[in-house]
Design goal:
This protein has 123 residues and is mainly β. Helix content is 0%, strand content 49%. The protein has strands spanning 3-7, 10-13, 18-25, 33-39, 46-51, 59-60, 68-73, 78-83, 92-99, 112-113, 117-122. The strands form 2 sheets. Strands 2, 4, 5, 6, 9, 10 and 11 form a 7-stranded mixed beta sheet that branches. A 4-stranded antiparallel beta sheet has the order 1-3-8-7, with no helix packed on it. β4 and β5 (46-51) form a beta hairpin.
C-alpha cells in the first residue's frame, strides 16, 4: 500500500516557476514508478511526466518537454516536478500516482493516487 500527498501548488504569473512535491508513505515506495497527471476544468485528465524507481529515462508529454523536470529522492520518499516557464494552459489540478510497473502515460496503469494540488497560472 502506498499513500501519496501532493504539495507545492499555488498561483503564479505566466513565465514563473513552481516545484510540486509528492510525498509517499509505504515501505516499498522506492520500487515504484511515479507519474504526474493534471486535470483542467472541463477537460480530461492528462499525463504530464513519469519517472521509474531508478530515475532513468523520464517520460514527458510533448507540451512540457524542456519546461518541466521530474526527479525523485528515494531516501526521502519524494518525487518532484519542477515547472518552469509556466503558461496559462498549465493551469490544472496536478496529481501524482504510483505504479509497480514501468513508466506509462496511461493513468489506468497507476494503482495509487494522491488528492491533488491546484496550480493556477495567470496571464
Amino acid at each position: 500500500q502506498v499513500q501519496l500527498v501532493e504539495s507545492g501548488g499555488g498561483l503564479v504569473q505566466a513565465g514563473g516557476s513552481l516545484r510540486l512535491s509528492c510525498a509517499a508513505s509505504g515501505r516499498t515506495f522506492s520500487s515504484y514508478t511515479v507519474g504526474w497527471f493534471r486535470q483542467a476544468p472541463g477537460k480530461e485528465r492528462e499525463f504530464v511526466a513519469a519517472i521509474s524507481w531508478s530515475a532513468g529515462s523520464p517520460l514527458y508529454t510533448d507540451s512540457v518537454k524542456g519546461r518541466f523536470t521530474i526527479s525523485r529522492v528515494n531516501a526521502k520518499s519524494t518525487v518532484y516536478l519542477q515547472m518552469n516557464s509556466l503558461k496559462p494552459e498549465d493551469t490544472a489540478v496536478y496529481y501524482c500516482a504510483a505504479t509497480a510497473g514501468l513508466p506509462r502515460s496511461a493513468g489506468q496503469f497507476y494503482s495509487y493516487w494522491g488528492q491533488g494540488t491546484q496550480v493556477t497560472v495567470s496571464s
